[in-house]
């Protein structure tokens, strides 16, 4: 039994157990290392050919980066996803700009609607001011022109705001696309500077164009427009809007409904907005419906979040103009969103469904100023009101159609003094970068990129060395059963030696 007892035997037994364990582990380790080497091979080959001080390499790298930037910018604006093929977690620049054109800008226009009482009061005063000391037998057309011009002037601010929102999104796209130049921080900064300057110039040119459009509308009242009702039909026209007739899906998303006003607790539901109803479900599978509302005679208004004790979240509410309850025994339905932008997007979607914001009724006729009702004046006010509504509708449609076109000119316009931003990137950006300074300094790598390249090459060689060691271990060691006190197998020193 002497050869199976003592420290030498224990050493041999434990050594063989360790050898067996390592041999069992090596296949999976070798597979992981081989995958790492394969993933690094292409990049390492480029690094091996890379010469930081070679002017030709720097020029080639600059050309490649600018071309890639141009393609990425066009892809993000015109559509087609990102160049890396990653899953989309948010809307890209072009999709956000489209939402501004079709949701945010129309919503800003609707917010211009004047309170009906205030409008009729202004028309009444304008008619009286135009007549002076005379008693008017006919409706003065100058009163119509003055009132409608005031309304047209109000269109300018939403139009300029639309340009600002588009410009902000374009600036975000410019910065996002420049992330591919992070390896060369000076080149990235210069690219952002050049494009931001060009974007500001185009923004100002676009705003000047919109101001000119409004001035053109103000310069001449085209009362011969085929859609204008004219004085003959003005007294017979009734005010009223139209709603989308067909059932059309407009928006889906998560919103919360306050449960307790005291505790400030809310419950989240999945809301589905169509052209004629608002429905919410327990979850986004849309199997368990909680409630559904008809949108007829419905309006939307903002609610102060502080009254619900729910912190910094944003609240808006739906209510019926007829005064009936909206949801169970509640006269309005409060909904909680995570951000102000989300609230604005929902309100813009509700606008598409025909749900308008609550009119601002803060302007009231002061006591003592309200004149006695004159039947003739009332008829004249009604006529002017209908004329203003008809003509302003024509101008508003023109502006609603023209402003997105003018805003898009910042991206894709032709035959103007300033080149389009997309064309500027593809044709002029490289020349402007060359003219900005020393290209050799501009193409200096960042310290992080240099360290990453050195670490990558070092890791590649280390993995290859590890694979070589694994092959040696596999070929120079043998598999044997682990020792026990009853084992009669002998092992030589050469068989038990393991070198790593």
TrEMBL record:
<dbReference type="InterPro" id="IPR000375">
    <property type="entry name" value="Dynamin_stalk"/>
</dbReference>
<dbReference type="InterPro" id="IPR001849">
    <property type="entry name" value="PH_domain"/>
</dbReference>
<dbReference type="GO" id="GO:0005525">
    <property type="term" value="F:GTP binding"/>
</dbReference>
<dbReference type="GO" id="GO:0031623">
    <property type="term" value="P:receptor internalization"/>
</dbReference>
<dbReference type="GO" id="GO:0005886">
    <property type="term" value="C:plasma membrane"/>
</dbReference>
<dbReference type="GO" id="GO:0008017">
    <property type="term" value="F:microtubule binding"/>
</dbReference>
<feature type="domain" description="PH">
    <location>
        <begin position="248"/>
        <end position="355"/>
    </location>
</feature>
<dbReference type="InterPro" id="IPR022812">
    <property type="entry name" value="Dynamin"/>
</dbReference>
<protein>
    <recommendedName>
        <fullName>dynamin GTPase</fullName>
        <ecNumber>3.6.5.5</ecNumber>
    </recommendedName>
</protein>
<dbReference type="InterPro" id="IPR003130">
    <property type="entry name" value="GED"/>
</dbReference>
<dbReference type="GO" id="GO:0003924">
    <property type="term" value="F:GTPase activity"/>
</dbReference>
<keyword id="KW-0342">GTP-binding</keyword>
<dbReference type="GO" id="GO:0005874">
    <property type="term" value="C:microtubule"/>
</dbReference>
<dbReference type="InterPro" id="IPR020850">
    <property type="entry name" value="GED_dom"/>
</dbReference>
<dbReference type="GO" id="GO:0016185">
    <property type="term" value="P:synaptic vesicle budding from presynaptic endocytic zone membrane"/>
</dbReference>
<dbReference type="Pfam" id="PF01031">
    <property type="entry name" value="Dynamin_M"/>
</dbReference>
<keyword id="KW-0378">Hydrolase</keyword>
<keyword id="KW-0547">Nucleotide-binding</keyword>
<dbReference type="Pfam" id="PF00169">
    <property type="entry name" value="PH"/>
</dbReference>
<feature type="domain" description="GED">
    <location>
        <begin position="381"/>
        <end position="478"/>
    </location>
</feature>
<dbReference type="GO" id="GO:0005737">
    <property type="term" value="C:cytoplasm"/>
</dbReference>
<dbReference type="InterPro" id="IPR011993">
    <property type="entry name" value="PH-like_dom_sf"/>
</dbReference>
<dbReference type="GO" id="GO:0045202">
    <property type="term" value="C:synapse"/>
</dbReference>
<dbReference type="Pfam" id="PF02212">
    <property type="entry name" value="GED"/>
</dbReference>
